[in-house]
Amino acid sequence: MKRIIAAALAAASIATTATAQTGIAPEPASTPVLHNGSALTLDDVIRAVGVDRPTVRSPQQTMPPPAPALSSAAAGIEAAQAARRVAGLRPNPQIQGQFENVIGSGPYRGTSSAETTVALGVPLELGGKRPARVALATARLSRAEIQAEIARADLRLRITQLYVDTVAAERRAQVLSEQAGIASNTLRIATARIRVGAVSPIEGQRAEVLQINAQIAADNAAREAQAARLNLATVAGQPIVGPLDFAWFDRVQGYGPVEPVDVDGTLALAAAQADVKSATAQVRVAQSLRVPDVTVSAGARRLEATKDIAAVFGVTIPFPVFNNGSALVAQSRSEERQAVAQRNLAVIDTQQAITQAQTEVANAAATARAAGGPGLAAAQEAARIARIGWAQGKFDQIALLDAERTLSLTRQAHVDALAAYHNAQARLERLTTPASTAPGENR
User: Which of 124, 207, 270, 428 has a CA between 20 and 30 Å from the CA of residue 287?
Assistant: First the structure.
């Protein structure tokens, strides 16, 4: 009896620790049969969503990205490409017309002395405005490409979390269904023993309450598993049928001490660096705007009185009295300093987030191995001995119910710890995802 109680207490202690690790609840998404003959893996779902495909479609790719997040990122890149083409365009020429010396007095009454001038004016951009605009548009295009990489990484993380939630929910439903079966068997044995007068009717009532509660829990878990699969199918854009990859879910990789990670190539830092380059390019644009543009014109003038035609040349130069562009330069420099500070902050935040994710991975892995190893073995052995002893009349029903409850909690804690491990691993992979699009690439 002491061995049973000790094993049950040990398993309950591990179960309490492991249940602190919980998975992440799935999020709703949008709709349009994903089926695999064998187990449907996480990579199968990711390929179905299209996260592994390029964000910008090639001319040969006729199908649009299936996920709205990828479609949005693709549209952002296309808009940035169009903006860069616009930035490289020169100012349009102007057609100027004048009708002078008309409707006056004396010889200028009417239109007999009119002078009609038609000219073509060509704006000349000075100060490097056009190269500055192109540099700014190029920097923003690089930022849009990095944002597309971030959208893909975020979508992959979301799919992974939903897949983990679905597998965990189905595993919990399996555990609680088995516990409901055990509770039904316990009620059957208690009923039989009550008929022969071996035990008090109170044991039958306890067993019946246990069976009812176990069946309710199993039904709830089944509905949660169904909802989790529907959420995953919503993001995948296809119904998902068939078994999932439980072997992958049960696998826990090795873990060790937290190690520093270089964040220079991560998406977070690449985005912050792209923002700095955009801000620097904006400063260059602001500086170029301080140089006034010149408009030169050439045309012909017809003198109505003599019917003669003469050439007309002109130059227009703005006079920057009220706005010389210094305020815009100051604003742009302040925004550049802000972008640099945010880039430095992104380095610190990313390093801290990676360290925290590494710790969560290690803790969840340790909890999963403990709950699924010695903890689960102790709980199973305690429940086995309690069933045998209670059936033979050696143990009371309280010991049996406690051992069964401990086994159920330990098995659920193992599932929770596995879900916490895979979710933490997915967050760590998201934080350390390298930026495949370097600023200035594909120009």
Answer: 270
DSSP structural state of residue 294: E
What CA–CA distances, in Å, run from 6 to 2, 9, 38, 310, 379?
A: 6, 5, 42, 113, 10
Q: What was the pLDDT predicted at 6?
A: 42
Model pLDDT for residues 381-413, shown as the tens digit of each residue: 777 777 777 666 676 666 777 777 777 788 888
Per-chain mean pLDDT for the chain: 80
Kindly compute the dihedral angle of the four CA atoms of residues 5, 11, 14, 17, in this order, to the nearest 10 degrees. -80
Q: Extract the tokens encoding 19.
A: 């249940």
Residue indicated by tokens 């500055």: 132
For 437, the token pair is: 């699009």
Three-state DSSP state, 60: coil
- Say how far apart CA 85 and CA 205 lie, in whole Å: 79
Question: Which pTM does this prediction carry?
Answer: 0.76
- Say if residue 235's pLDDT is above 70: yes
Inter-helix orientation angle 129-195/201-236, to 10°? 160
In 196-260, which residue ranges form alpha helices assigned H by DSSP? 201-236, 246-250
Residue 240 pLDDT: 84
Phi-psi region of 110 (alpha: psi -120 to 50; beta: other; left: phi over 0): left
Strand-pairing partners, residue 241, are 35
Residues 6+ positions from 88 with CB-CB distance below 8 Å: 130, 133, 134, 137
Alpha-carbon distance of 434 to 426, in angstroms, equals: 14
The 3-state DSSP class for residue 299 equals strand
- The residue written with tokens 């420099």 in the block is 333
Phi first, then psi: what are they for 118, rounded to 5°? Answer: -125, 125
145, 77 contact by CB (below 8 A): yes
Q: How many CB atoms lie within 10 A of CB 137?
A: 22
The predicted model gives 158-181 an average pLDDT of 91
